[in-house]
Design a protein that fits this description.
This protein is an alpha/beta fold and about 350 residues long. Strands 2-1-3-12-11-4-5-10-8-9 form a 10-stranded mixed β-sheet, with helices on both faces. Strands 6-7 form a two-stranded antiparallel ribbon. Strand 11 and strand 12 form a beta hairpin. Helix 1 packs across helix 10, helix 8 runs parallel beside helix 9 and helix 11 packs across helix 12.
């Protein structure tokens, strides 16, 4: 198989973990006789420094023309000025919007050998295997009007608008039900329907979609209750579907279950065109360049790339199995209690791939 993959390393540890993921994809290509062509573009802070924008038109067009896009991380203290007109995160939002990827899948799986790395009691983590399906192109992050102004008496005022239409809700909820049908057949729709009109619409649409999937159980849960349940009874969840900001917050909370944000991948998918794959961790500028960044989340994101964009299920499974074997053997970075460098973890995973 031939595939064109765009790499967006970004800022901080992004280039290090993207290098690791590329090496594993190249190993997969050798083992299965595929041809993967890679091209690389700037995004985030490094793009602002070079071009004055967080994502150039050239980079976006290359991503649109690709079979898949693999992203590292964006941002860092250097660009962390709330008053700045151009911010690294704008590149990521523009990329998601430009690719039309409206669903962000973030699985949370607890590896038995990493239970001790989580701050939760081991008994709370037994059987945890959930997926958060986060709506990605609507809600507070994109709603209009948005901006800052001054009142007549000189006080500053800021406005963000939480906005959804029923079509946006329907497509993300339907994707969650389709996913649940092949899992444990339970969807938890998270909202704030006791306060927000947008959540009441969300709940109404979820009920309508649920009628198409009689074999799947639907439960509604307020976002504050969901935040509590994620740490008190995480094994009770199968598929969680929620709006943009709630999903952003809840997935970072859920990362605690696995012991480290460094092991969690994500896939951002739309109804057509290339998918966008990235680890859920940030740019971690405090460890950038030290060779100790955990590459697992990015490598597992590459496995998602193989599965969802290239339809190479066997290759994806083998890569995931190689990652799990490395973790089971203690071949991990310091955040998971190991002593390996980024490149040593990558080499170990590639070694397990070829045996």
């Amino acid at each position: 198989m031939k595939a064109n993959i765009v790499l967006l390393p970004g800022d901080g540890i992004g280039p290090e973990v993207i290098t690791a993921a590329r090496q594993t994809l190249e190993a997969i290509a050798r083992l299965f006789d595929h041809q993967f062509a890679f091209s690389e573009y700037l995004i985030g802070g490094c793009s602002i420094d070079t071009f004055g924008t967080a994502l150039t038109d050239e980079a976006l067009e290359a991503c649109k023309a690709a079979d898949a896009v693999l992203l590292g991380a964006v941002g860092g203290p250097k660009w962390d000025d709330p008053a700045a007109a151009v911010r690294p995160e704008q590149g990521l939002l523009a990329l998601r919007k430009g690719l039309g990827v409206f669903a962000n899948l973030r699985p949370v799986k607890v590896y038995p050998s990493l239970i001790s790395a989580s701050p939760l009691k081991p008994e709370k983590l037994q059987g945890v295997d959930l997926v958060v399906v986060r709506e990605l192109t609507g809600g507070l992050y994109f709603g209009q009007p948005k901006g800052r102004s001054r009142t007549a008496d000189g006080r500053e005022r800021a406005v963000d608008t939480l906005e959804y239409d029923e079509d946006e809700i329907e497509r993300i909820v339907r994707m969650a039900f389709q996913l649940a049908r092949s899992r444990r057949q339970k969807v938890t729709s998270v909202d704030k329907a006791n306060v927000l009109e947008s959540s009441r619409l969300w709940r109404q649409v979820a009920e309508r979609v649920a009628r198409e999937f009689p074999e799947v159980t639907l439960e509604h849960m307020l976002v504050d209750t969901a935040a509590m349940r994620l740490v008190s009874n995480p094994a009770g969840f199968d598929v969680i579907v929620t709006e943009n900001m709630f999903g952003d917050i809840l997935t970072d909370e859920a990362a605690v279950l696995s012991g480290s944000m460094g092991v969690l991948p994500s896939a951002s998918l739309g109804s057509g065109g290339p998918g966008l794959y990235e680890p859920i961790h940030g740019s971690a500028p405090d460890i950038a360049g030290k060779g100790i960044a955990n590459p697992v989340g990015t490598i597992l994101s590459a496995a998602f790339l193989l599965r969802y964009s290239l339809k190479l299920e066997e290759e994806a499974r083998q890569l995931e199995a190689a990652v799990e074997k490395a973790i089971d053997m203690g071949q991990t970075t310091v955040d998971l209690g190991g002593t390996c460098t980024t490149s040593q973890v990558t080499d170990a995973i590639i070694q397990h791939l070829s045996h």
